[in-house]
Design a protein that fits this description.
41% of the residues lie in helices and 14% in strands. The protein is of the alpha/beta class. α10 links the parallel β11 (290-293) and β12. The protein starts with a strand and ends with a helix.
């Protein structure tokens, strides 16, 4: 038997996500922690990021080209027996759960670590079963990593967790940026990145954007990344009188996303709540001015590298949009402050803090 790994990461998030912020976080950790220190209890996965790891991880792509109801849940359950086998095998010192299933509680006496991302992480968190599972995980965990002080407060208030059990460790940001020259969108545009469901506050942004194009900049475009607009969004866009030429949404590659950040007039993040707000750092490192909500974790993460608005006040979103769009000096200052703020976020530093936490539990 080979020497024990310092940490075993379980299969959960790599079953749930083909791509996404949480699996991206774990992949970046694996890329920046010595491969001799970790292992994964993984058998089935369609995660797009796994091929970035320079390690001989064997896994099977399952239902990769099929889409059906609760596919991710099925992949999770099919991978669970192998994960349990790896956990029982006990060839590790620390178990780091990558999501909120408490199945491992009965199969290990080793210290357990779990990361809490935010109170709204994925639709699974809105059902009673998941909340019950979260409570079991948090009760059993020896340490809970919180990705911001804001989520730390949520943990304490929502789950009544002992503060001594929580460790705040920030995400990092990849600083190996490809600077692009040729624009992929010729028009002037503001950029919106990510999902658009309720708490993301997209409809209020649409209202404020409508005021901008009607009163100030008719040629401005709103570029969104992610899924095509759904029926409700299309109805709202039509009702507001926004033309097809003034708004778009589609999936972009990582390189294309960099191009969008680097050539946007500004990046806007109107969300009412986030655990960390990773796109803030993506925008900053790509030299894009940031305009965002004054709520949740945003002031903690962005500090003086963003212009802020009240996310519930459409007029405030509009006036701050107008303020930044019409001031070269403000955009220049935000770019400078953004690049400086990114110096405080490093995946190497984040990985080191994780390893220090693991070692403290041995």
């Amino acid at each position: 038997m080979k020497n024990k790994s310092l940490v075993l990461y379980d299969h959960q998030i790599f079953s749930y996500q083909s791509f996404g912020g949480v699996s991206r976080y774990f992949i970046e950790l694996l890329k920046h922690i010595d491969p001799l220190l970790w292992d994964i209890s993984l058998l089935f996965s369609n995660n797009k990021y796994l091929n970035e790891i320079n390690s001989n991880i064997f896994y099977i792509k399952l239902f990769n080209n099929l889409s059906f109801y609760k596919k991710e849940r099925l992949i999770l359950e099919m991978g669970k027996p192998y994960s349990i086998y790896k956990i029982i095998n006990n060839n590790y010192k620390i178990l780091h759960l990558t999501h909120y299933e408490s199945y491992a509680n009965n199969f290990t006496k080793n210290p357990i670590v779990i990361t809490y991302h935010d109170k709204l992480f994925s639709s699974y968190c809105f059902n009673k079963r998941t909340i019950r599972e979260q409570k079991k995980c948090f009760k059993r965990a020896d340490k809970i990593i919180s990705i911001s002080n804001n989520t730390r407060k949520d943990l304490i208030s929502l789950f009544d967790i002992d503060e001594k059990k929580i460790e705040v460790i920030y995400f990092g940001i990849n600083k190996n940026i490809i600077r692009t020259v040729k624009r992929i969108i010729d028009e002037k545009y503001i950029l919106y990145v990510g999902a658009r469901k309720g708490y993301k506050n997209f409809f209020r942004l649409l209202e404020a954007f409508t005021k901008i194009i009607q009163n100030d900049l008719s040629e401005l475009k709103l570029v969104c990344t992610g899924n095509p607009f759904n029926k409700d969004e299309l109805n709202k866009i039509k009702k507001l009188g926004i033309k097809q030429s003034q708004i778009s949404s589609k999936f972009y590659s990582e390189t294309e996303l960099m191009n969008l950040y680097q050539n946007a007039e500004l990046f806007i993040f109107p969300s009412i709540y986030e655990g960390f707000g990773f796109p803030l750092l993506e925008a900053m490192i790509n030299n894009c001015p940031v305009l965002c909500s004054n709520s949740s974790c945003f002031p903690e993460i962005a500090k003086n590298a963003a212009e802020y608005f009240s996310p519930l006040e459409i007029d405030d979103i509009y006036f701050k949009l107008r303020k930044v769009l019409f001031s070269d000096d403000i955009r220049k200052k935000l770019k400078i402050n953004g690049l400086k703020r990114c110096e405080d976020f490093s995946w190497i530093k984040s990985a080191q803090k994780h390893v220090e936490l693991y070692n403290s539990l041995i």
